[in-house]
Amino acid sequence: MIAIVYCRVSTEDQARHGYSLIDQLDVCKRKAQSLGATDIIECVDEGISGSILERPGLTRARDLIRQGHIDLFVCYDPDRLARNLSHQLIVTEEIERAGVRLEFINFDWKDTPEGKLFYSLRGAIAEYEKEKIRERSMRGKRRKALEGKVTHMPGVYGYRYKDSSLEIIPEEAAIVRQIYTWCATEDMGPKSIAARLNDFGIPSPKGSIWQKATVKRILHNRTYIGELILQRWDHRGGKANKFRPPEERVKIKFYPKEHWVTVQVPAIISKDLWNAVQERMERARQLKPGRAIENYLLSGLLRCGICGATMHGFRGTIRQKHRIYYVCTARNPGIPGRPKCVQPYVLRDFLERQVWSRVVLWVQNPDELCAALEEQLRKDSESIDQSELVMIESELNSVTKERSRLVDIFQRGLVPISEIEERLEALKTRENRLLERKSQINSRLAVIRQAPTPQDIRDALREVRASLDNLDFEGRKHLVRMLVDQIVVTPGEITIRARVPIKFLE
Ligand SMILES: [Zn+2]
């Protein structure tokens, strides 16, 4: 006579009732033997909730029953079998259909209408209890969130969970700030930021290589301006996904927005930086290949003088006129959470003519360009961002420390020399990259500090002047970017900010 003994403990059962797996197994096996079992197969699920049907132990038991080798099925209590009435009835039906005798320790199973009714009631009550426990813990969590407490470790890079709140991890926060700064001030996208971080040898949140998607998530995460969103995901049913085949997995859904709770946590970046980054990301989304059909001479250079957002090319019909415009991003499509900008649509041809004529003027009269530059350079040198240099210094410092640590390990003879050499080599590469970037920044700073002379500017523009009349669209686009840093558009006024001709920067 072959018997299956099925036992289950969930983590909370063990804590609350002191149900131990060994105890359950022991009683069940003795019962099976007393009923004449000669072979006993143990099927066990540990740490798995009874509301999940797809438990590995139970699945194995059901397979064996289906194959028809089993005579007896022993279980401690109906609620071990399932905490969901329909699951309980499914499994029971399978056992009965296979002609297997069903026995519980804690419950007298009778194959009569009354017995079955009572059995179903037990199942219904088990399900109700389970639901109540879940409901209570969910409500408890929600209440905590509404009180402004962080209910669990949210896994946001830059923070650690401590006493129902988040605490900033300074080293990681510095990286987050750097990511935002690069995006806003150097117009870098997630892909190039990830590449730079990898270049610097900075480990990703998971301790490996930075991916584009990781950087993108960081750039969109409101936690960094101090707004952690809780109660956003509906995880119901998702816990069992790892036991299910892919096609049967429960999809984790968003709750409706009204359900979300925002908890205040320490901010890592400023609101201004956040806004600048969101604008940049929105603009990049708009300029994705396939979206830009027109040739826009000024794309990426325009800024709205009313709200500060970027402006981009737009083909559309306004007052029955089908034309091509530049429009403020905060007006069309608009920026979430911000009022629509009132900047009027600007005709593309008009704006481009204005800017182009200024560029031509500068090429032909370098002194004009020189005067404009001098004024700007004076302002720039006052405001350049030094934070990246600071970060590089601290990285270089850690390289030095690591090196002396390796030398120390070597002297004590703890690790074979080949391994030490390999690590020193890697350290050297990292140091070189950092030094290279440092000198890049310093030379850029030097350029800014030392205003070019009118003669330099004339030299840089000489070649351009000769070919000015023969430039195609790409050539004009290139020239505009060589001399124009930014164009600020307000109704009735266009302010064109010059830049040092690129030749000087290389
Ligand atoms: Zn605007």
Question: What does this protein structure show overall?
Answer:
- α5 runs antiparallel to α6, α7 (170-185) packs across α10 and α8 packs across α9.
- This protein is of the alpha/beta class.
- The mean pLDDT is 84.
- The protein has helices at residues 11-17, 21-34, 56-67, 78-81, 85-97, 113-146, 170-185, 190-199, 212-220, 271-286, 348-364, 366-383, 387-411, 417-449, 454-467, 473-483; strands at residues 2-9, 39-46, 72-75, 101-104, 159-162, 165-168, 227-230, 233-234, 253-254, 261-264, 302-304, 311-318, 321-328, 346-347, 484-490, 493-498.
- Among the domains are: 2-141, Resolvase, N-terminal catalytic domain (Rossmann fold), CATH 3.40.50.1390; 159-272, Hect, E3 ligase catalytic domain fold (Alpha-Beta Complex).
- A 4-stranded parallel sheet has the order 2-1-3-4, with helices on both faces. It has a 3-stranded mixed sheet with strand order 11-15-16. Strands 12-13-14 form a 3-stranded antiparallel sheet.
- It is elongated and about 105 Å long.
- Zinc ion binds next to loops.
- Residues 304, 306-307, 309, 328, 330-331, 341, 343 line the site of zinc ion.
Brief sketch in words of this structure:
The protein has helices at 11-17, 21-34, 56-67, 78-81, 85-97, 113-146, 170-185, 190-199, 212-220, 271-286, 348-364, 366-383, 387-411, 417-449, 454-467, 473-483; strands at residues 2-9, 39-46, 72-75, 101-104, 159-162, 165-168, 227-230, 233-234, 253-254, 261-264, 302-304, 311-318, 321-328, 346-347, 484-490, 493-498.
